[in-house]
Design goal:
Layout lengths: L2 E6 L2 E9 L5 E4 L3 H5 L19 E4 L4 E4 L2 E2 H7 L2 H10 L5 H12 L6 H9 L6 H15 L10 H27 L12 H10 L10 H14 L6 H11 L4 H12 L7 H14 L4 H9 L20 H17 L4 H14 L2 H5 L7 H10 L7 H22 L27
Antiparallel strand pairs: 1-2, 2-3, 4-5, 5-6
Helix pairs in contact: 2-9, 3-18, 6-7, 6-11, 7-8, 7-18, 9-14, 9-18, 10-11, 10-18, 11-18, 12-15, 12-17, 14-17
The structure holds acetyl coenzyme *A.
The site of acetyl coenzyme *A has 18 residues, from loops.
Length: about 425
Amino acid sequence: MQKALLQVDGQSYELDIVIGSEGEKALDIAKLRDKTGYITLDVGYKNTGATTSGITFIDGEQGILRYRGYPIEQLAEFSTYLEIAYLLLYGELPTKAQLEQFERKIAERTLIHEDIKKFFDGFPSSAHPMGILASVVCSLSSFYPESLDPHAPDEVVERNIIRLLAKVPTLIAWIYKKRKGHPYMYPRNDKSYVANFLYMMFGMPTYDYEPDTHVVDALNKLLILHADHEQNCSTSTVRTVGSSQANIYASVAAGMCALWGPLHGGANQEVIEMLEMIRADGGNIQKWINRAKDKNDPFRLMGFGHRVYKNFDPRAKIIKQAADQVLNVLGIHDPVLDIAKKLEEVALSDPYFIERRLYPNVDFYSGIIYRALGIPVEMFTVMFAFGRLAGWLAQWWEMRRANEPIVRPRQVYTGPTLREYVPIAKRG
Ligand code: ACO
């Protein structure tokens, strides 16, 4: 094993060098404190590897994203979301028979317990869909107590993974129906996974509904592009919560809460709201670019910048192209798409964005497609959660199978040093 030499307090210490299959290099500092008394400090984990993982590879400098070795461009072009979920979970692309069996197992579990319908009655119709989704997903654990056993065999874990993949689309569609005040539509297992979701969202008992194949294809693509993204904020949360041996429903619900934030998955909603605001304000792009650059102004260009991608986000490239195609095929002209393209053009030629290597991320164009598919803006982050579900489950399973220790970072304490308690009567 290769070693690195660390010199501290006049002494030399050897650290193991860990090299990943794509040549990524890491210093193993797990025993550093025992040997030297030092910890490492990295607020926001900007340069800290929290685990080794065989699921997703990103090269942020080159704009590369691969699931289990397969380039995202090929997967988005040719596969379906459930094929990708299988790949992420089991490590290999399924054969036709394996995929059919996987799809069947999921289709058999799309119904949700009738008592869960009552939960929906308790939420105000104005509730944010992410709050409902996270709470109902967590409460699924109470319907499946076998999931509480941290030592349950793989077949039990797998059953609960299948349940989540099967039930989350039903829950999302019912959240939408609740908002609209429309009757809940029960799943139809003779339809494909994505077509069934669209049927539950947009179908009504009063007429037949068959989703447009272009819409099914576009949604499959979006779900695939969101399916995993290695150790991002929400996925790290899923693994962190799972590392305490909390059940898979609680872990995934925690990931949903992390995704909700505007700096993470919540950005897709913020992007459309920002583009609408720019449009309503008269479409003066330069004014908003200037505001984004002004350090005294809290305004940021939502959908721009990424912790890992310092070149371009390959998902944004595919989504931008797909947005054009979907709008074309559905005969929609969305003026917000024109504003988005202009904003990108101006930003990418501005030294502020060039120097900081800020490019459009996955959220910049995705909302335009969601909107064209008829999905309301408050549901955008929920759609992100739908796609990311496969990745969260694969990452949780990987963490559990590797028997990873509980996540427990350290800190550098900067508060007061020891002082004596003064009774209140003497404090003046
Ligand atoms: N608009 C204007 N300036 C920006 C933006 C932006 N969108 N993003 C980063 N910057 C600037 C920062 O002000 C900072 O400038 P400075 O060096 O002069 O202080 C520099 O670029 C680096 O930014 P950081 O915030 O330090 O980068 P970090 O890696 O911590 O943050 C993040 C990444 C959160 C994605 C950030 O770029 C951002 O807030 N983007 C907008 C929100 C967004 O689109 N989030 C979705 C991300 S993708 C996803 O989660 C699915």
